Amino acid sequence: MLDTNKKLKQKYEALGENPETYLKGLLYAKPITYWDYVETDTLLSLQKPRTHFKDETIFIMYHQVTELILKMMRHELEQISEEEQPTETFLIGKINRLNRYTTMLITSFDIMKDGMDHKDYNEFRATLTPASGFQSAQFRYIELYCTRLENLVNDEGKNRLSAKPSTEEYFENIYWKDAGLNRKTGVKTLTLQQFEEKYLDSFIALARELKGLTFEDKILKLKNPSDQLKEKLKEFDHLYNVEWPMVHLRTADYYLSEKGRSKEATGGSEWKKYLHPKYQQRKFFPTLWTKEEKKTWGLPKG
What we know:
By secondary structure, the protein is mainly alpha-helical. The protein is built from 17 helices and two strands. It has helices spanning 2-14, 19-28, 34-38, 40-43, 55-82, 88-107, 109-114, 118-124, 137-146, 155-158, 167-172, 190-209, 215-220, 227-256, 271-275, 277-280, 291-295, and strands spanning 257-258, 261-262. Strands 1-2 form a two-stranded antiparallel ribbon.
């Protein structure tokens, strides 16, 4: 106890503070509880369905859980970007976490596919228009932390780029705009308009801030990365950019395809085309993949 008091005294004196004041405060402070620390009551009050269908609450909670998992991923990626000279041990530790989180995202889709009433979902989904999972900003932030902007432009988009694209030009041609922009007419869906109005400036600012500091940049600066690290990176790339979009696509197909016809997504996107990895062509670490692997990206093996 004497040693602890000594360390506390040193801690607050180093901050230029009076240790006695802080120790006295402990006499009056209430003990922390689980529900206060986790903010349980607040968390459980955040579900506000728009209809009387019971499974809409499940739908809301599922997406809230997904956003929390994405935040965990951002937390790891922020640390990678801030590490000036990351070691392989550090990077493998982080990539293992990212792979676990992504696996959680993939397996959690069973809640969406088998955990909601098919008929009820197709009733209450109409009240969600024009909101769409496409509008998840965290998903875009993760992309920006993971890879350089040029890897977020598909082949069609690359054909539209100038010789030396600016950050803004990259965003004009970024793959995800194809979900809500008619390239021929220039008309944008309301979903895309809302999304860009709220988040586009922050995306551009983050992209500039991360120039040379993305996860991909950190890997490219490593001399002779081990096969173990490269395999871990490829696993993450495939889990996040192929397996997760595909399970999302299959789930959407389950709810939105009926008797040979496809229903429109709430955001108005061509969801079958947009969600498929072969159209997105998103790869975080393209130098790790062979030409043949890139050519068959997102296609069934064999």
